[in-house]
């Protein structure tokens, strides 16, 4: 059914509004861990567990609270080679990834250094977030409504018609809440882990569709 027919008013003006708000990130989410390979599963698991224990211990000694460290992935996979069309068993791979939450954006490089020095060989992602995200989303939504209102007013003025004081209908259009600052790497060698990591800014977007009566 046509959306305009759902409205109770006969003459409507539909406008689209957008709002954009930026915020400075103040939290960091790092996903990293260890990948271990080998022929004997028990040995591979033991190697991986030893390294992960050392990483967690190093993180805690760096001031990260235990509740800010959690496992996001633990996986055991058989590995195969394909030779002359035949599948041949190569060994096992054990992957254990942790998500570490920092209440700042300045310690990511140092924390990765600590983890790598203690056995981490995979940094899967670094993402920045803001404690003001909810407020920024609301501000973006308000800006979107005002943008739509400004457009409607301009159109009505051009058409020499009057708009209703209250819209017939307001619809929020789904938008990504923020454009995350996001990094991926297959592995970060120790000698490269000290590269500066810049958080930049987060961008929050909102969009609305608004219908006004006019006459």
The total of beta strands comes to 8
Strand order of the largest sheet: 3-4-2-5-7
How much beta, percentage-wise? 35-45%
Question: Overall mean pLDDT score?
Answer: 86
Oligomer: single chain
The CATH class designation of the largest domain is Alpha Beta
Gyration radius from CA atoms, angstroms: 26 Å
CATH topology of the largest domain: Alpha-Beta Plaits
Low-confidence stretches: 1-8, 182-193
How many structural domains are formed by the residues?
Answer: 2
**Helix- and strand-based class?**
alpha+beta
Say which CATH homologous superfamily of the largest domain is assigned. Protein of unknown function (DUF541), domain 2
Order of helices and strands: EEHEEHEHEEE
Distance between termini?
24 Å
Helix % is 25-40%
Structural write-up:
This protein is an alpha+beta fold and 215 residues long. The chain has 2 domains: 3-23 and 133-177 and 206-213, Translation Initiation Factor IF3 (2-Layer Sandwich); 27-129, 2-Layer Sandwich (Alpha-Beta Plaits). It is 27% helix and 39% strand. It contains 3 helices and 8 strands. It has helices spanning 41-61, 108-117, 133-159; strands at 12-23, 27-38, 69-83, 86-102, 122-129, 169-173, 182-183, 202-213. It has a 5-stranded antiparallel β-sheet with strand order 3-4-2-5-7, covered by helices on one side. A 3-stranded antiparallel β-sheet has the order 1-8-6. α1 packs antiparallel against α2 (108-117). The protein is elongated and about 80 Å long. It starts with 11 loop residues before the first strand and ends with a strand.
């Amino acid at each position: 059914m046509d959306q305009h027919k759902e409205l109770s008013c006969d003459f409507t003006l539909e406008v689209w509004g957008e709002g954009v708000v930026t915020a400075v990130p103040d939290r960091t989410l790092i996903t990293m861990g260890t990948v271990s390979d080998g022929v004997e599963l028990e040995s591979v698991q033991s190697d991986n567990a030893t390294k992960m224990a050392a990483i967690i211990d190093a993180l805690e000694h760096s001031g990260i609270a235990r509740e800010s460290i959690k496992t996001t992935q633990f996986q055991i996979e058989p590995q195969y080679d394909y030779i002359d069309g035949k599948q041949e068993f190569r060994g096992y791979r054990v992957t254990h990834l942790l998500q570490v939450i920092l209440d700042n954006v300045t310690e990511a490089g140092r924390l990765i250094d600590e983890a790598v020095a203690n056995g981490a060989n995979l940094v899967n992602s670094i993402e920045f977030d803001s404690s003001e995200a909810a407020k920024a989303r609301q501000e973006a939504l308000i800006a979107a409504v005002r943008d739509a209102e400004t457009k409607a007013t301009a159109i009505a003025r051009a058409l020499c018609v009057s708009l209703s004081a209250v819209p017939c209908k307001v619809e929020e259009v789904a938008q990504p809440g923020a454009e995350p600052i996001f990094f991926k790497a297959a592995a970060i060698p120790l000698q490269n882990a000290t590269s500066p990591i810049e958080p930049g800014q987060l961008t929050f977007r909102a969009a609305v569709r608004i219908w006004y009566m006019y006459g």
